């Protein structure tokens, strides 16, 4: 029996996902952000590995494109770190889908990630993951209705932003 027979649909899905990611370059190039074919393949691989490690399945391939679309205009992302940040955002997204018990839609979670990344975390993935999204996930698990209402100073004293931070 040909072992590649069963893998063929997955490979086709990965190729389609890579093509969709490359098409995003038409929009993101306006912000000086472009992914290479190799980086697009890495994003698809990151998604596959992350889904597997969190025991999740995903039908369709839109989450990477949604993250690209949401974050491409961030003032904290440059071409130099674009691919690495997207890989981190993919892992962060699926981790917090689990941590929020799937109570948030994909779009709601992405919007919370973007808002906190750009505004409260000043582009810090560490703050986004370990402070803001963690607090939101805890609030959701405890049934709080205003889970996205984080205090302005909540947790800020725990992190040092440098001399220029106000």
Helix and strand topology:
Layout: H1 4-23, H2 25-28, H3 37-53, H4 62-71, H5 82-99, H6 106-120, H7 125-141
Structure commentary:
With 166 residues, the chain is mostly helical. Helices cover 61% and strands 0% of the residues. The chain has helices spanning 4-23, 25-28, 37-53, 62-71, 82-99, 106-120, 125-141. The protein starts with a helix and ends in a 25-residue tail after the last helix. Residues 1-7 and 160-166 have low confidence and may be disordered.
Ranges where pLDDT stays below 50 over 5 or more residues in a row are 1-7, 160-166
Structural class: mainly alpha
Oligomer: single chain
State the major sheet.
Answer: none
Query: Termini distance?
Result: 65 Å
In short:
This protein has 166 residues and is mainly alpha-helical. It has 7 helices and no strands.
Q: Tags for this entry?
A:
disordered C terminus; disordered N terminus; 166 residues
């Amino acid at each position: 029996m040909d072992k590649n027979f069963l893998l063929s649909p997955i490979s086709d899905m990965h190729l389609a996902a890579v093509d969709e990611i490359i098409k995003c370059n038409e929009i993101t190039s306006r912000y000086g952000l472009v992914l290479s074919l190799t980086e697009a393949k890495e994003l698809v691989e990151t998604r596959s590995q992350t889904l597997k490690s969190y025991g999740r399945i995903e039908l369709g391939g839109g989450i990477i494109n949604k993250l690209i679309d949401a974050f491409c205009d961030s003032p904290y992302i440059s071409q130099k770190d674009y691919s690495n940040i997207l890989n981190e955002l993919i892992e962060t997204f699926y981790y917090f889908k689990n941590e929020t018990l799937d109570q948030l839609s994909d779009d709601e979670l992405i919007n919370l990630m973007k808002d906190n990344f750009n505004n409260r975390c000043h582009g810090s993935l560490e703050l986004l993951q370990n402070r803001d999204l963690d607090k939101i996930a805890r609030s959701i698990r405890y049934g709080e209705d205003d889970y996205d209402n984080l205090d302005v100073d909540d947790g800020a004293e725990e992190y040092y932003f440098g001399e220029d931070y106000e």
